[in-house]
Amino acid sequence: MRGIVAERSLRGSGVGPAPYNRAVNTDPQLPQKVILDGDPGLDDAVAWLLTLASPEVGVLGITATHGNVGLPLTVHNAGVTLALAGEVGAAVPYFAGADRPLVADAVTAAAIHGDSGLPAAGLPQPTRPPEAEHAADFIIRTVQAYPHEVTLLATGPLTNLALAFRLVPELPQLVREVVWMGGSTAGGNRTPAAEFNALADPHAARIVFESGVPLRMVGLNVTMQCVADPERIAALRGLGNRAGEVCAELLTFYAGVYRERYGLSGGALHDPLAAAAVIRPDLLDWQPMRVDIEIQEGLNFGRTVCDLHGVTELVPNARVAVGVRDEAFFALLLERIEALP
Ligand code: BDR
Ligand code: CA
């Protein structure tokens, strides 16, 4: 059985290989197979639109987690984002995952993303409901179906990935790579020490960082350099399509929050930069590094402790983004959003 029709018939059946979105990518060898895991969240939605529109990538499915807003909203927003993507979103299944962190108390970021997580008017409704399968089961089934081929692009707390890795301890050895927006080589944004995605489930982050999975971390030290200022928002709106208009509206709301909280000219494009790291890794500079996650309660709870200078002499467990070509990144984002309806 070949092609999108055959793959659609497998979706959600719980057996056989996971569907592969060849509506976007016709060459089964070339594009990277990717699962998008996140907590939309307006920058998650922009990141997912960027990914769905990119021919280098075939999106196998979307798994939602708790995070910026509660799980029912992030699942709904996953369906909304797929509807926004039009044809390239039509064959992509989406799944509900963890509704809370493994151990820590739940935190949200509705103050930054709005109560709904997607503060824009006139958004489309999901064209279909989420699949019944749990996100962690989908991740397990899909990675096992395509050993060493699947990239997990995570733009929220790492709870779904940690659950999958705990359920199947050999899974990290079968994953091609985890690319995570989270953490920082420096300070945090939710607390002085912790970045939001790390703080929202530090125990899960620790499981993933200690799993041995190939891992790249895109943290605040680079994402805060990529800001959607009014000029960039105008460029997105100027594309003249619905996706550009929605991105502009979301980023306008976001800019207001960032101006007030951080004194920046716009919101930081955290999650879209992590997506770009999958599509065009050359847009960032990478340094192998030992990264440990602080899970002791206290001032440093949720901190990603980055051994920038190798002082621990421990074997690196991640490649950490330490530099970014911001202009080229934004040009990529603009070009790909233009390709959407
Ligand atoms: C991260 O936290 C969330 O609020 C954003 O969606 C992003 O993933 C930035 O710290
Ligand atoms: Ca996010």
Question: Which descriptors apply to this entry?
Answer:
341 residues, Inosine-uridine Nucleoside N-ribohydrolase, Chain A, 8-stranded mixed sheet, two-stranded antiparallel sheet, globular, disordered N terminus, binds beta-D-ribofuranose, binds calcium ion
Describe the structure.
With 341 residues, this protein is α/β, with parallel strands linked by helices. The chain has one domain (2-6, 27-338): Inosine-uridine Nucleoside N-ribohydrolase, Chain A, CATH 3.90.245. It has helices at 3-10, 42-52, 71-84, 87-90, 110-113, 135-145, 159-167, 171-174, 196-199, 202-209, 220-223, 230-237, 242-262, 270-279, 326-338; strands spanning 32-38, 57-64, 94-96, 150-154, 177-181, 215-218, 227-228, 267-268, 284-289, 291-293, 304-306, 318-324. Bound molecules: beta-D-ribofuranose and calcium ion (CA). Calcium ion is lined by residues 38-39, 41, 43-44, 67-68, 155-156, 271.
Low-confidence stretches: 1-28
Mean pLDDT figure: 92
Query: Main β-sheet: number of strands, strand sense, barrel status?
Result: 8 strands, mixed
**Residue share in helix:** 25-40%
Could you tell me the CATH topology label: Inosine-uridine Nucleoside N-ribohydrolase, Chain A
Radius of gyration: 18 Å
SS strand fraction: 15-25%
Strand order of the largest sheet: 3-2-1-4-5-6-12-9
Give the name of the CATH architecture.
Answer: Alpha-Beta Complex
- What is the global morphology? globular
